[in-house]
Specification:
By secondary structure, the chain is α+β, with helices and mostly antiparallel strands. The protein has two domains: about 5-245 and about 365-450, Aminopeptidase (3-Layer(aba) Sandwich), CATH 3.40.630; about 250-365, Alpha-Beta Plaits (2-Layer Sandwich). It has twelve helices and 16 strands. The strands form three sheets. Strands 1, 2, 3, 4, 5, 6, 14, 15 and 16 form a nine-stranded mixed sheet that branches. Strands 7, 9, 10, 12 and 13 form a five-stranded antiparallel sheet that branches. A hairpin with a 5-residue loop joins strand 1 (about 50-55) and strand 2. Helix 1 packs across helix 12 (about 430-450). The radius of gyration is 24 Å and the shape is globular. The relative contact order is 0.16. The structure holds zinc ion. Zinc ion (ZN) binds near residues 129, 130 and 228.
Length: about 450
């Protein structure tokens, strides 16, 4: 069995120990024993597919499938390897469990297409969020290798160790390290048990000082492709197996503090009280209304609210809540955010409960590359017989980091009921096989039309 079915089967195989930290659910945090076991298994699968495999300084498993190198373009190192008939063989490092040390590697002169996703999971997560993209990349290389096809660029499959941030308070640590979008101060973190990132890296034979040398230069790359389950209900609702991502949504997050007057629930008459929670409730409904009136890709969420003093017999004196606003582009997001903040002040004034707002997070949109998107759409239309559905990703992905350094494309795969971050996460192997075939057509198209 190969292609989409095998990709699904392999994700399923990684659901339980030793690839999960718990026997009754999937939990695979960065630099855990489950991560270590997964690295060993992926190394075997990548090698079997025809790749040279290494563990990079950030703990990412990287499999490289060499290009066909035209002799006139080859550098000296490439020519020597070609003369000896072992192109790429000297860059083969197979990291066993507890791999120690990161040797300098000469990857040759030819550029690479990176196909990637993450292999960490949230606690009690689903089997496909992340690993499916990695398994599909391996299937693409296995198919090329089985037919002895070499492209004018190398393919590198990256399995990122951390995307979810489910162990350390820093998400997308691994892809951001590869893209040079992180600094050493961000590595000064510890998990819930007090284990520092530095100590966790050491247990993998890695270290904090060299982690940032996982960085790849944009001059080494021709692009980045990531396949991922949609994690939403759009494709299923429209009866489509695949969607082509146009952009990863920009986000703004605010913290709002509403100040009322705490008082006895029995003695404060309704006319005189200044209830911070009822004011907050009106604000939450206003936020929902602003988002509902906007374009399809605009979403706004109040996901956390704390009430003070939070007692059954006290009129709430203070409410603190968060607002998360996202859209495919900055303009509708900023327009919605402005409308929301204005409305909050109007409600605060009307109720005599002052509200202060603070911007706590501002992430720009990560647009996908137009030319890559067109090629991927063509491949999707060819294999599905339907026009490719453009779709904005409301969730963040590793592709966001890469959009800053190389042309990026993302393929979405329909998932059951839009469910993700949940053990009920499910995909249809037939859909995954369409994704596999579209990706295979896409990389071959890239090989014939440019570079
Ligand atoms: Zn994911």
């Amino acid at each position: 069995m190969v292609g989409g079915s095998r990709a699904v089967e392999r994700c399923d195989a990684l659901k339980r120990p030793p690839y999960s930290e718990a026997a009754d659910m999937l939990f695979r945090p960065y630099l855990s024993a489950a991560h270590d076991a997964t690295i060993a298994q992926l190394t075997a699968w990548m090698a079997e597919a025809g790749m040279a495999v290494r563990l990079d300084p950030a703990g990412n498993v990287v499999g490289r499938y060499e290009s066909f190198i035209p002799p006139q373009l080859a550098g000296e190192g490439d020519r020597a390897r070609m003369a000896s008939g072992v192109v790429g063989a000297d860059s083969c490092v197979s990291p066993p469990s507890g791999f120690a040390g990161v040797p300098p590697v000469n990857w040759g002169d030819m550029k690479s297409l990176i196909i990637a996703s993450h292999i960490d999971s949230v606690r009690d997560g689903g089997a496909y969020d992340g690993p499916l993209g990695v398994m599909l990349g391996i299937e693409v290389v296995a198919a090329l290798n089985a037919h002895n096809i070499r492209l004018p660029f190398a393919i590198e499959i990256y399995a990122f160790g951390d995307e979810e941030g489910s162990r350390f308070p820093a998400s997308m640590l691994c892809s951001r390290a590869v893209c040079g979008q992180i600094d050493y101060s961000a590595l000064d973190v510890a998990d819930r048990d007090g284990v520092t990132l530095a100590a966790a890296l050491e247990s993998f034979g890695l270290n904090r000082e060299t982690l940032l040398t996982a960085r790849r230069d944009s001059s080494e790359l021709i692009g980045y492709l990531e396949a991922h389950i949609e994690q939403g209900p759009v494709l299923e609702a429209e009866g489509l197996a695949l969607g082509v991502v146009t952009s990863i949504a920009c986000q703004k997050r605010f913290e709002v503090t509403v100040t009322g007057v705490a008082g006895h629930a029995g003695t404060n008459s309704m006319a005189l009280r200044k209830d911070a929670l009822t004011a907050g409730a009106e604000m939450v409904l206003g936020i929902e209304a602003v988002a509902q009136a906007g374009p399809e890709d605009l979403v706004a969420t109040v996901g956390r609210m704390t009430v003070g003093p939070n007692a059954p017999n006290v009129v709430p004196g203070e409410v603190v809540f968060t607002i998360d606003v996202r859209a495919g582009t900055e303009a509708p997001r900023d327009q919605a955010a402005d409308a929301i903040l204005q409305q909050i002040q109007q409600i605060a004034a009307k109720r005599g409960t002052p509200a202060s707002t603070r911007l706590i997070h501002d992430l720009p949109a990560a647009p996908c590359d137009k030319s890559m998107m067109e090629k991927l759409s063509r491949a999707v239309a060819d294999v599905t017989g339907q026009a490719a559905r453009p779709i904005v990703s409301g969730a963040g992905h590793d592709a966001m980091a890469f959009a800053g350094i190389t042309p990026t494309a993302m393929l979405f795969i329909r998932c059951k009921d839009g469910i993700s971050h949940n053990p009920l996460e499910a995909v249809d192997p037939a859909d995954v096989d369409l994704a596999f075939r579209a990706m295979l057509a896409f990389v071959q198209d890239l090989g014939t039309t440019d570079e």
